[in-house]
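Tutorial, part two.
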Amino acid sequence: MFKAKTNSNKPPSSTLESKVKESSLNSHSIPIVQLQNTLGNQGMARLIKSQSMHHQNVVQRQKVYLEKDVEKELEGPELIVGSYHEPSFLQEFIKNEEEDEELGGYEYSLAENLNEYLDEYGYGKGAQFRNWDGKSHPKTGWKFHVSANLENELEVAEGILPLLRKYEVTHKVDVSKNWGDTEKENKSQIGKFITIYPSDDENTTLLADLINRKLIKMGLSGLEVPNEYSVGNTNMLYMRHGQLSAIYYAACAKDGVIPNDGKVNVSNIKDDYDVIMGNYDNLYSHKGILHFMKGGKPAPAMLLGNKLIADPREGANPANVELPKGLIF
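Running the prediction step on this input gives:
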């Protein structure tokens, strides 16, 4: 049996003694001062090292057990065909975290209005439209419109725009509020709050799915966009096919000469292009951009393959092209 060792030269610290008197490791533990007196300094050092190694081993075992538990949670219970298994909290949490990241996450801005928010993220300046340039897009193709209400425009922007920036999708935001004026006689711009230009037709379906899922999570409402396909089930996402970039006469003319605004001689269009007049009377140039004209009403020209045709902007699919596969209308 160990006898208590005393050291008259180095009495125990009064601070250490006071702490020992206040508490101990548990009701059966030996006070630290008594251990120190019994084992000496070297013995205490060995004991502390031993306890530290034991603690590290316990922590490591607990970590392994936890990793195995998480792995089991992620795998889920063994599935039986025809049975339903309620997902665990951990599975749901991880799934939601991954989905939030996939959908662009959430941004917390101090902006008090739409223009302040767009300034914060470097959008181009403009009285009506403020652009964000991402990947290039075709001159003719599908485009989306995300609608909103004038009351929730900032909330819609904070939810949808991070997704578009994440995937480098070119888009523009109408800051004029004309899109929200439902009393206007000309309703062609109603609801067209955010205009989105997919980089190609292959990405159209994937992008529509991401936007629709984000809108569902946001749970907001928006105005109906006339003469466009409603995509998904939120009544906030719309799409149409048509002209995405202006067709300039100089790029199509044989002589490369830009005429004054007015009628264009179709015979001067390069032979590579097949001009489809349809019901239109003539071609004309306005600020160098080709339009078709009928009864004084213009329609922008669009290039579909090698065909120059009109985009009257009065329908969702004026060229009657094949709809993207996988979309829910």
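The chain has seven helices and twelve strands. In part three we will examine how such features are distributed along the chain.
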